[in-house]
Amino acid sequence: MIPHPPLTPIAWALVCLTCAPDVFAQPPAELPAITVTADKQERVLESVPASLSVFDGDMLESQGIQNVEALQTITPGLSFQPFGQAGVNSPVMRGLSANFFSFSTSTLLVVDGVPTLTAQGYDNQMLAIDRVEVLRGPQSTLYGRNAEAGVINIHTRQPDNTLRGQVSAEIGSRDLRVTRFDLSGPLVEDRLYASVAGAWRSQNGFIDNTYTGKREDDRELRNGKLALRWTPSASTDATLRYSQVDYRDGAALWGSPSAPRATVASGTPSWNHSIGRSASLAVQHDFDSGLRLSSVTAWNDFRDRVQQDTDFLPADLLHIARDHHFSNLSQELRLEGDWKRAHWLVGLYADGDDHDLINTQKMPRGLTESVVNLRGNSTAAFTHWTVPLAERWTVEAGARVERDQIRFRPQGDSQRRADWTRVTPRLAVQYAFAPRQQVYASVSDGFRAGGFNVFSPAANYAAYQPETLRSYEIGAKGWLAGNRLRYSSAFYVMTVKNMQVQQMPLPGLVYVTNAASARSIGAEFELEYLLGDGWSMQAGLGLNRTRFSSFMDGSADYSGNQNPFAPRINGYLSARYDAPAGWYAQASLTGTGSVYLDAANRYRRNGYGLINLAAGVTVRQVEISAYVNNLANRRYDAVGYQNGIVTVYSPPREAGLRFTWRI
C-alpha cells in the first residue's frame, strides 16, 4: 500500500469546509439598523445628512481588515499616499491630502476620542473593534483643524457585563505569523468592567538585498490595549483606556527606479523602530433634566525612529534618518440636550502640541542634521443644532470658532511664531420623501492649519498659510426591497484656496507652498443588499477630479494639473455566501485609478484592481478560514516617488490560514 502524504494546513481546512455540521442559521431576512455618533450624538445612520460609511467589527474581521490603511479597499473616496513604512500614513479623501512634513493631515483620525493630527502614528490594528465610521466631506465644525476632508472615527468595543473573548492564530505567505486576542467582562457586576487585547505579527520581506544576501523589508509588530470602565450609577459612565504599538521593521518598501524590481544593493542599514502610545479618559453623565455632559481627555504620543538608505548602493552616498517625537494633549467638553423639538450641542476644545524633531540627511557632500522644537496649541468653541421644521423637513446648523498658534525654534536660531483664527460654519437641509428615504443638501467650510517649513533653512524656514475650502453637497440614502437593500449616494463640489502642495526640486530639498487654488468635483455611491438564500452583496464607487485651478511656483506653471496622490476613481464589489451548514465563501474586487506623484504630473503609480478570496467554517466555538489576497499578483508600484529618485513597491500575492476560538 502506498502511504498517503500528510495533509497540509490548507488541505485540513478544505476537509473541514466539506465536513462541517449544520451549526449556522440562515442570515437575517433584513439588514439591521445602524446607530452612529459621527456628529457626536447617537443617531440612526440614514438620518445623518452627510456621506458616511460604517463597518462593524465582525465585518472588518471577516474581510481581513486589520489596520487603518486597509480601509481604503472598502471605502469609496478614501485612499492613502504610497509610502511603504508601517505606522506612517497620509490619507487622501475626496482628492485632498497633506504632505508628511507639514505634520498635519487632511482627514482626522479619532480612536476612542484620541485624535491623531499627523501622518506619523496614523494607524490602528483594529483590535476588539465595535465599529468604524468614515465621514466624508468637511468636518471642521465639530472636529476642527485637519478634518477638512473628513474623519475616520474608530470605536473599540466597550467592556460590560457580558463575558467576551477570542484568540486567533494565523500563518501565511513569507512566513507570516499572527496572534491576536481580546478578552472583556465584568470585575464587579453592574459597576466595574475591564478589557485587554493584543496582537503580534511577523513576516519576512520580499525585497532582495544583493549586497548582503538578505531580505531587506522584514516586518514585526506588537500591539496592546487595556480598558477599565466604571458605571457608579445608571447616569454616569467613565472609561479609561491605554494603547501601545511597537514597530520593529526593516527597510521601507523602497528601491531605485533603475534597478530590477524588488532588488537593492544597500550597504547602509535601514530600519523602523517606532513606538506609539495613547491614553484617554471618557466620562459621560446624564442629568435628571435630560442634559448630557461628555468629557474626553486624550494623550497621544508617537516616536518616529527611522533610518533609510536612499541610494540603494553599497557605498553610503545618500540616506535619511529621523528621530521625531510627537506629543499631543487634548481636552474636549460637550453639553447636549433638547429644546422643544430641537436637539442642540455645544462644546469647548483645547489641545497642545510639543514636538521634538531631529532630521538627518546624508548627501555626497556630507552629513546635515536639523534639530527643531515645534510647539502649538488650539482653542475652540463649537455648536451644532438639529431642528425639525415640519413632518418631513429637518435643518442642521453649526459653527466653530478656532484659534491655532505655532511656535517654532530651530537649534541655534531665533524662535518664530504664527497664529490663525478661523470660523467654520455648516448648514444642511434634509427631506424625508418616503418612509426610510432621505435626500439632503449641505454647504460647509473646512480648513487645515498652516505651519513652517521646519527643515528648509535655505528658504529661511518659510511659513505657509492655512488651507481653506468650501463644499457643496447633495445626497440621498435609504432602504428598499423590504429593508434588504441599503443605499447611499452623494455629489459634491469643493473649492480650495491657499492649497498646500509639497515641492521637491532637488534631492534633500522639500518644502510646502501655498501657491495653488483648486477645485474638487466628485460622487460616491454605496450599496448593501441581502439577495436571499444566503447570498449578500456590497459595493462602493468613488469618483473624483481634483485639479489646480491656478498654481505658479517660481517660473513653473502647474495650472490644470491633477493634484498629486488623488485617484479619479476607486471602488469595490464584494459577494458572500453563508451556507446553512455553517460555512461561507466570499470574493471581492477592489481597485483604484492611477495617481500622479508630483505637482508636475511627471511620475505616477498606475491604476490597479485586486481580486481577494476567502472561505471559512465555524464548528461550535472554532472558526477556520483561508484567504488569498491579490490573487492575480498584480503590481502597482509608485515609480518616481520623491521627485523620481524612489520606487515604492507594492506587496505581492499573499495566502494564509486563520484559526479563531471564541468564548
UniProtKB/TrEMBL annotation:
UniProt keyword list: Cell outer membrane, Ion transport, Iron, Iron transport, Membrane, Receptor, Signal, TonB box, Transmembrane, Transmembrane beta strand, Transport
Domain TonB-dependent receptor plug: 46-151
Membrane topology qualifier: Multi-pass membrane protein
Cleaved signal peptide residues: 1-25
Domain of life: Bacteria
Record-annotated TonB-dependent receptor-like beta-barrel domain positions: 232-631
Ion transport listed as a keyword: yes
NAD listed as a keyword: no
Record InterPro entries: Beta-barrel_TonB (IPR000531), Beta-barrel_TonB_sf (IPR036942), Plug_dom (IPR012910), TonB-dep_rcpt-like (IPR039426)
Record's subcellular location: Cell outer membrane
Main location: membrane
Record Pfam families: Plug, TonB_dep_Rec_b-barrel
Family: Belongs to the TonB-dependent receptor family.
UniProt protein name: TonB-dependent receptor
